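Q: What would this chain look like folded?
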Amino acid sequence: MSKIVAEVISIGDELTSGQRLDTNSQWLSTQLADLGIVVQAHQTMGDYLEPMQAAFQTAAARSDLILVTGGLGPTQDDLTRQALAAAFGESLEFDPLSWETIQQMFARRNVSTPDSNRIQAMFPRGSRPIPNPHGTAPGIDWLVNCGSRQVQFYCLPGVPVEMREMYAETIAPRLLERYRQGQVIVQRVIKTFGAGESYVESLLPNLVARGNDPQVGITASQATISLRLRTTAPDLATATAKLEPVVATIHQCLGKLVFGEGEQELEDVVIEALKRRGKRLVVVEWGTRGLVAQRLDEASGRWRYSAASAPLGSAQVAAGLPTGGEAGFCGGVILTHWDAVRRWLAPEVEWSGGEPPPWPEVVAALAAVAGQRFQADLVLAGGPLPHQLDTNATAPAAEFLLTACDRTQAVVRQFPQSFTVLGHPSLWRPRAAKQMLNHLRLLWLDGILDSAVADL
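A: My prediction, written as C-alpha cells:
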C-alpha cells in the first residue's frame, strides 16, 4: 500500500474562516497511515463551486485516493456533490433507495421530510452511496476515469462522529479489499522521555533514515519523543519478525529513556507500578495547576476499565494493601500562590519571620503534611512555577521531591530532585508535570524506591 498516494480535502466556510479546527483531515490521515497509505497533501476549501471543482481536479491529477469531508448537507451552500460531478463532466442522478432511507430517518423522528433534503439522494452518474446510519447525508463512492488512470473518491459528511463510523464500517474494508494485495502492515510506537528529539535520534544507529524497512519515524509532543515503526510483509509472523530486531536496538540504545509503547503514557506507568505494589500516592502541585493529578486520575480510569487488568481481590488486601482506600492515586492538592501554601500547611508547620523560607523546605513541608492528611504511602510534591507566563522570562527552576511514609505517616525517606523547565513558556507546566511523573518512574526502575519502602 505504500505506493498508493492519497489526499484529504475538507470542505466548509467554517474551516477556512478559522471558526472551526479541521480535525477530520488529521484523523483520516492517521487512519490511512495505519493502512500504509501515504497522504501527500491536504486541501481546505470554502463552500464555493468553482474553487471546489479545481481542487478535485488538482487532487485527481496527483493522487490515487482522495477522501473528501463536508458539503453533503441539504442547504444551498453544500456543494460537494455538484462540484465533484462538474469537475469530471458527469451529471447527478437520483437514487430512490437513498431517498427512501432519508425519509425513514425523518419519520422515526416524527418529522416530515423537507424537500431540500432530496438533493442528498443525488449522486454523480457511476458512483454509489455510502450508508450513513446516524445522519441524513449518505457518502459518495466514485471511481473516476482520468485518462489512463483511475482515481478513487470517497466523500463523507463533515460531522466527525458520522464520518468516523462511516469510514470504519465501509471505507476501511473497501480500501483493504482494493489495495491490500496480500500484504499485512504491522506498526509499533515506542515512547521516550528525558531527552530532546535530536539527541534521541543521535543515539540510534541510522534507524530513522528514509528508505529503511522497517521504517522508523520520530515525533515530539510536549517533551515526549515517540518512535513510530512500520513494516509490511506477506503475513503477520514475518512482519513481526522484521520489527523485533529494531525494537531491541532501540531499547539497547535508549535504555531508561524508554518508558512505554503504543498509547501508554508516563502516568499509566506510574499507576501500574502503584497498583502492583499496593501503594497509595498523593500529589501536591504548586504551579502546574493540577496537571499531574489530572493525568493520574485519567490513567486510573484507563486502568479501572481496562479488560487486561484484573480487579484487586481480598487476597491482595490481606497481603497488606492499605485499608484507607484503593491502591493507586488517592488525591491531589493544587496550590496557586504563597498565601494558599501557608494556609494549607498551618497549623502543622510554622515559620518565623515574614519572609517565605527556601523553596526546598516548603516543598518538603507540603509533602509531609499531605502524607499525614491523606494517609498515603507516597507523596509527590512539586513547585513552584511562575503563575503568570512571561515570554521574556528565563527558564524557571522547580523543586520537587518524592516522600515515602511509614504506616504512622512519619516521613522516613525523601528523594529530592530539581530541574529547569526549558522551551516556550506555554510548555513549562506540561513538561514539569511529566518531569514529576518521570522522577517517580526512574526511582522504581532503579529499584531505589522499592528498597526504601521495604525498609519501612
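The longest strand covers residues 184-193.
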